[in-house]
Batch of 4 targets.
Target 1
Amino acid sequence: MANPTPRDLALQALNHFDDKGILPRYFLEQSFRRYPGISGRDKALCVHLTNGVLRWRLRLDWYIEQSLNFPFDKVELRVLNILRIALYQILFMDRIPEPAAVNEAVKQTKSGGKPHVARFVNGLLRGIIRKRNSLKPFPESVDQVERLSVEHSYPQWLVGKWITELGEGRATSLLKASNEIPKLVVRVNTLKTSRAALIGYLAAEGVCASPTRFSPAGIHIDDLNVPITELGAFKEGLFQVQGEAAQICSFLLNPSKGDRVLEICAGIGGKATHLAEMVGPQGRVIGLDIKRGSLVRLRQTCKRLGISWLHPVCADAAKPLDKLFKKRFEGILIDSPCSGLGVISRHPDIKWAREESHIPELSKVQTQILASAGRILGPGGTLLYVTCTISREENEAVVNSFLERHPDMDVVDLRDKVPRWAKGLVDENGFFRTWPDVHGLDGFFGAMLVKR
């Protein structure tokens, strides 16, 4: 079976997202497994094109609309995505020659059996190239929400929400920061090596790496020319790919050696494996998730990292867990399902996959999970509620609602608990809060609760 080109695979990912709602990141993961012969370079280009279009989709559409002599909604979806991919290369990727982007778009269009449409694609793209310096980045004579929506490529509901909550200046700063391509960050596996030793190991593999600003276990990796899974350090289990803000969450819970700890909504185990490092072989970590596929990957990760005391459990955390766990936990970390508005830079599909109506629906589930976790936390135990969103309805509102219904739980002011390096990451209310535009980190929220 011949391997698809990076542009063809990006086109398939975008079409499946628009037609069926399949998130491109999951579609591409499956496609890379289906076509193992795709090179690392081609995989990287495919992901870059897909995320680039998703990151700038509304701005690209505005440029296309300015160049049409018929209504925008008359453009066939497949053709529209071909135009988006080509235009992203022309306007945002200096290393790809403009004629190559145009020619590949024409070739993709012809493969659909419509030569007259290919002529339209060719003419529109070449016309945009000729007048690129006079293109307007946003419509004139519109309100601030619509202007910022097109200029920074976000849905209007989200722009309006951030302006209402943060003010226009701060909202604009957040829009810009969340469009930045994020750095690749990994967490050193302290069971096998140290951060300094890992940086040296990576240097020997030709990889430029440096310590992260906040997390004492984090490393930035720059200019990686091969898939990270092909590095010797990865295969030997010396690190786990994990964002810096996510790493900090485990340091906040800070379990002791030998503790019995639960992570709820563990996924593939970024935080759970970190907690396992902290409690050591004499401790026990349970990684609970509703998705069996994620837990299979968690087992694989544990094997690579050399962790045998982390135990995956498949269950729905929104339902009571009392019968599942008879013994109470000293520590619980809830990596709560959320809108993901703090990690748009990593997953730009969130812009278009989320709707404003999802937020109250998610808040309801989050409240159920928090209540379920509170019942299996032992006396004196600590619970850390974490999200990767900046939506207050999913953060402070959920915590406050929980506290009103559970008088045996108290909130902990993290200003009195965190290490010195994390002091600047705690807000005036004692909550852990990171911002893309302030700290250069994913947007995370964390509240620590203790049971009397």
Note: Residues 205 and 231 are 8 Å apart (CA to CA).
Target 2
Amino acid sequence: MKLNRRTFLVNSGTLAAAAVSGGVATSAKAAPAAGSPKPRKPYEGIGDAPFAAGEPCLQAPAETTMGVAWKVSGLSKGVVEIADNPEMRGARTVKAGGYGLVPIDVSVLQVRLENLKPATTYWYRTVSTPFTDYKNIYDAKLGKPVVGKIHSFTTMGATAHSHFCMMCDTHARWEPFELIVAKLKELRPAAVVWAGDATNTTQEKETAVEIFLDPQVKHRDYAADIPVFFVAGNHDFRGSWISKLDEVVHARHPAERTGAEWDLKWNFAVRLGDVAMIGLDTGEDKPDGHPKWFGLANFSPYRRAQAEWLARAFERPEIASAPHKVVFCHIPLYAAPDHPDYPHDGVKIDPQDYAYWSRECNELWNPLFEKHGVKLVVAGHKHCLRIDPPSKGRSWHQIVGGGPELGRTHKGPDASRFPTVIEGKVENGKLVVTAHDVWKNRVAAKITI
């Protein structure tokens, strides 16, 4: 049975809106009682309110840098203490931001750890200090610091453990996300790639904070010890706030870019043991001229810019020498001519048309894949596990991960629809890729490359 993704997502949003409205007429906000204190604005400090800091999330990992982000409940400043031992002896303190003014925020604190050693384990903890009052720099008061738990991570590098996992299309659905996180905790990979559609439509920052930093699951520390690479999906470009996502999710370190590449926030090419992990952004699933975009889409130039960046990334010594080159993206880069997906590649300007796969990305990037020996492309978007072996003109395997459905779509039961964790590790020189069905807790597929 074939899932209509658009109907699934639109119906989900309609039901959510109906649940909120409930058919009850709304009323104007009541005026404050005479003599009551003026409500405190978020950037004026927390006052007497309790303060809390969430679990840290390791983001944008690299050989010598690591991003840390965490949720806070009110205006605060934050630092990360980092050491090369679990007792935190000799720990150094790293402030948020770069040079000049240290940023403070009412909901998210971000710290970038730099000057790290490749393939090295570090221990760290967050320290968050609230402002109880902040009128201006001369009239502000700090509250009691909140010191987080000690966690650890290992940086990327050629001698790191060649073990990764990929999750995708979680769509802020907490029951399948709980199953995915439990599997990641069990497998303990060196890094995780979140390959898009983490969101649905993001109209405000609080939505992104919940999805990435405060998911409504048991293990909210899902990324406190296992770093996460982020690859955007088409839904991660939707919503009036979403262009500011790097306020919640660390973009790649600026040092990874040349001047011409400054706006490539999410692309990565990082060595993890014998694997070169490469992240590409397929963008939206509609052409730039689609009427639904109101002139806001500029993805074709973005894909071409990524092709130029990719050509340079493949020439870097640590990437060129990797025995296994693996590409991660959201929309699949291939569909067989006899496959039902093949005609639907998002090339027409039509209100109902969207990409089942990206022909444009394939034409731009596949020549580079072939030239530099890419062995595997890991994608999502289709909400159904699929494996495409190499074929004429394409020497790489493609594996497509599942979505958030637990054996049921809007059309009824469908056992082929389940969330997945795609695991890759190098064993005896071979890349072994396992697709875990986290709904039934079974191995759904396994290939060796």
Note: The longest helix spans residues 5-21.
Target 3
Amino acid sequence: MWIYEPKDGENIIIAMFCSFFDSNFPNSLFLVATGWQVEVEPVVESYPGQTVNLRCHMALRAEGRGKDQHRCVSPKFDPNYPDSPVKGRVSFSPSPPNLDSPSIQISDVRMTDEGKYICEYATYPIGNDQGVTYLVMLAKPQNSASIVTVDAGTKPVVVARCESVDGRPAAQISWVTTANGNGTTVSKPGVDNTVTVTSEYRKVPTAADNGKDISCVVAHRTQTKPESFPMKLAVQYAPQVTIVGYDNNWYVGRTNVVLTCQATGNPVPLSVQWKTMSGEMPDTVQIRNNELKVLKVDEAVNTTFVCEVKNRIGTSRDQVTLTAKCGCLKMFSSVVYQCHNECCLLLFSVTLNILTTDPVSAPPQVVWIYEPKEGKRINIAMFHPKFEPIYPDSPVKGRVNFSPSPPNLASPSIQISDVKMTDEGKYICEFATYPVGNEQGVTSLVMLERALK
């Protein structure tokens, strides 16, 4: 007989086939059996809707024959299939069955058919023997994963979720990520004897976590390999703001310098607003989106600029304090400048390489030329190493002199004292050599209405 033992419940006979010995049958076979073994498959796997074969075989060892040994075996009755969960779907195979191999098959198997199936032989006077096959029902789960959008905070929350629905047996879920969190997994009964497994990944979300890679990996017996779901964490946070562009060298007269307000945030920042701590925006400033452009640096930009950025999560800001310096444009290699009351002292460091091998070549001479905004060029200072410095008639005569004095050709800088508004313009330092030719550098002197404090 075959007996079905469900996981939860009592044993049920599902198929029977009876035989007995009749001494009136002279052709009946008598066996003296000193031992036998019921052979079955320990585990059989199947999917819903399939037909499954549960094999059973009786292996006997015969050691002799005799007329008085009542062991076995003339088929006498038809197979019997009592009421059971598999009635109408179970049958002996082959049919009619034989005692050597009374296997059964179950058609249209269901998830609820899972359990132990016992093939049992009953004999007289030897007793019973049995073999047990475990029918494992498999169901391929429906796997999915999703990201949970969260706000940056200080407490652990669910940031990702993974689910394996209606599988049999239960799926195994794991997480792969560089984020510092933990996964928790729970299982619950699904439909038709299946299992649904849900895993949640929790962590304390920070702005730095936004966009980090995270993958849910689902392993199941019905899959040839684990199924992976790559995702990216979604953490919303208030803007992070930085002002760039100020190099601490915004000298008076410098033009078209720009401050840029750089901001990151999730969601993307909705607005960028420029302000000053004083409340007044200088006239020389132009604002376009996240850029603040100073058309010409003057005393008015000696203030603190503030960039304020908003998104749905919050508002953030950054600020930078500017200092306008009295400055002069670069001449040859560098310019050193300072302001003192109404006097702008210009000190030029000039490097001049004279490429000549002719010992009789004339030494170079230097000439300073003033070019006003409107008017002709005027020589204001000249020096030749064989002669004394000369200061021709000019608007700065009496206020201009070489510095140091006496001058040297390595650094023939000039100093103009008691500068006036009318002194603004270009000042050209020109070296004249033979036979190399001339070389010059130009500095623009910018005059302010009053000295910077």
Note: The radius of gyration is 50 Å.
Target 4
Amino acid sequence: MEPKLEPIVETFKSREKHMCVKGEGLSIPVCDKASLPGTVTQRTCVYGGARIVLMPITDSIHLVHGPIGCAACTWDIRGSKSSREDLYKKGCSTDLGEKDIIFGGEKKLFETVIELRKLYNPGAIFVYATCVAGVIGDDIKAVCKKTEEVTGCRVIPVQSEGFQDHNKTKGHWIGCDALLDYVIGTREPEKTTPFDINVVGEFNVAGDFWGFKPLLEEVGVNIISTITGDSHVDEIAQAHRARLNIVQCQKSSNYLAKKMEKRYGIPSIKVNFFGLEQTVNSLREIADFFGDPEMIERTEKIIESGLAEVEHKTDEYRERLQGKTVALYVGGNKAWSLVRAFEELGMGVMMSGTKNGIREDYERIKEAVRDGTIIVDDANSTELARLLKKYRPNLLISGAKEKYIALKLGVPFCDFNHDRISAFAGFNGFVSFAKEVDASVSSPIFDLTSTSLRGD
């Protein structure tokens, strides 16, 4: 008989197995289940999952077919930066109301697409189905096909009704399917090289892509497309001619890489440009894949130069951060990809969790963290507050929804989600990362706050 383990924090009986400690039992929490009703989950819906995959395409209009709230809630949801147009930041909705729900919204959708085409002449118009559009039965595929014939513009249906699943991961897949079905393979590149790649699952949040794009160009690869940060739809249309897909966000885009390998024979490798060690390993893996001696030699020089440039820039931060602990409660990919970066700063990851994790995600987290690390699935606000009060990390890494829980408890907070404004990828990005983490952890303000909520 297995010994009964004490709950990590007090919670509902059905929620206890959604938290575990690495090294005890299977070290994988129960996951990918519908949230317990009434517990105020922090999850996003399927529609939100599709929107964050596609929204960074900068020359496109993203039209939400539903009530205005669905568009308002997800406007600029990715925090992606653009070196070209800002068309993708236009908030567009059909604003379905009571009459549309009774009589149908297809005519309104048709007229909206025609008007947007006249106003902006976009590279494409992505039309997102919401719960309301699905419930009333609007045929957005038919409307998109008709308006594409009328306008000559790509009009792409995204069947992302929020009620399809409890997990926004399905929304990621739906967004990827829209690219596979309507975009990728529809345009040929003017020229190809033996070193053509796609950067998959990079959304240029706060300009992250610009932190490692110059490194890739110095290595000697030719980037056909970025899927989807700082991209144009016609660039993604040529992605089927790449020789390699490098996958940065494995949570949202492994699915797309696997589908492209099956359909077009494009192999993929997983990369991570957060942290010095991971950046070095990623550059070497890319060079090793192509096996070109000159590229491999050039890559080693780039690594040597990049490390030398930042060698002592993080020393003062490391000194103050040494021995501090951090809790991660983030999107699936960051829950494991940031672990080594924090260890490079001398910090220990005492907890890692995600809102929408599937078993594959927690396997990756388990591999990345040390024994004794708490692993959490879909923690609600009360559970997160109890975790922070009981285990007292020196820093919480999460998103805007968790920010004020941490701050009210006197726990320093750093946003590594879509609302951040500092790029953390690549060699110089690691310096910015160290600076921002130190600014949060070492702030004297937390010595002045009330201890009543902390339980001190």
Note: The chain has a mean pLDDT of 91.
